[in-house]
Amino acid sequence: MKITKEQARNFLVVYHHLTSNTALAGKDGVLQFFKRVHSIQYDPLNVVGRNADLVLQSRVIDYREKMLHELLYADRLLTDGWDKMMGIYHRDDWVYFGCVRAAMVKSVTDTLQSRGSLDALNNLDEVLTHLAQNGASAPKDIKLGRMSGGTWGHKSLAGAALDYLWHSGKVGVYTKINANKTYDLIEKLMPIEILDAPDPFSTDGEFMKWYLLRRIGSIGLLWNKTSSGWLGECLGNRATRKQFLDELVCEGSLQEVEIEGISAKFYTKTENLPLFSQEVGEKAVRFIAPLDNFIWDRDMIAAIFGFQYGWEVYVPPAKRKYGYYVLPVLYGNRFVARFEAEKHKTDLTIKNWWWEDGVKPTKEIETAVKSEMHRFAACFGKRIL
């Protein structure tokens, strides 16, 4: 299948529900979006809103932060888990992540060992007993003492033990207050039929093919380059990916895509092919989260959209080109600007705004931006100044 960059851009904004005629609504809209992209990335920073909420506000037209919180910690249809990075996905996917949990257990153990803090793992049974006897607890509720091995990372033995148990799947997140987690035994949080379900994969190859399809579905269109689109456990080896991508193409689950002017081969799920002919419709302005699925692979976005984006949170202030927490601005199928905002008690202010090179803001664009800015602020219970 051969397409132009324009067709690729149209497909991606339609796939990600970033157009006026594909916008979603309500908690059902949130679940519909998860059904398509499988997971979104969690990050605790809350400058104008946390990443997961920023992702959802750009798709769900009436989004409010309480929607995600309820789906996670009241309805428990969604769960905190590790995918590309720390993320959120539907609870029905939990059973498929055994290989990822095993890889993360090794990763956490290696990290604790490198910090001289393996003694935290001597407390796992005590922590599990505490949860069984006392119910949902935060690390501060379990008095085991401070960590050894320096000041980086977990501050308490209970915090490190709970983090290990969460990665292993023995405990889950009961709730979050701001970014602070309270944990409980997984059997109290997840339906027993999910926990008792057999391993869905009889071979490592079956898991790899499922995970490749899932990751491509999380983005919509993806190449097999070593890039941020493949971050996380189990997907890092390019040759292994190529082997199973070829098998999925032969089986008909994936479609190879060539984009005019780009030498690399792309892949999309075969079920997505009808979306390549769907109209974008009236141009809409959308503010994109820094860790949005849409821009997970920033090299790919640069190749298709001509938009260079770097998250400068960890860049020293003197070396930043733009700002600490900057959101890209999409108009139709083009990135036209980026901005930095500040959140106050009742208001949201625009600290900096940069139009992209070559963009001449028309009255139509400016009107659409102002309208979207008011909707965006309302999603977070603010008014725009």
What can you see in these coordinates?
The protein is an alpha+beta fold. It is 36% helix and 18% strand. The protein is built from twelve helices and 14 strands. It has a five-stranded mixed beta sheet with strand order 10-11-12-13-14, covered by helices on one side. A four-stranded mixed beta sheet has the order 1-8-9-7. Strands 2-4-3 form a three-stranded antiparallel beta sheet. A hairpin with a 5-residue loop joins strand 8 and strand 9. The longest helix is centred in the first third of the chain and has 17 residues, at 98-114.
Question: What are its keywords?
Answer:
36% helix, four-stranded mixed beta sheet, single chain, five-stranded mixed beta sheet, 385 residues, alpha+beta
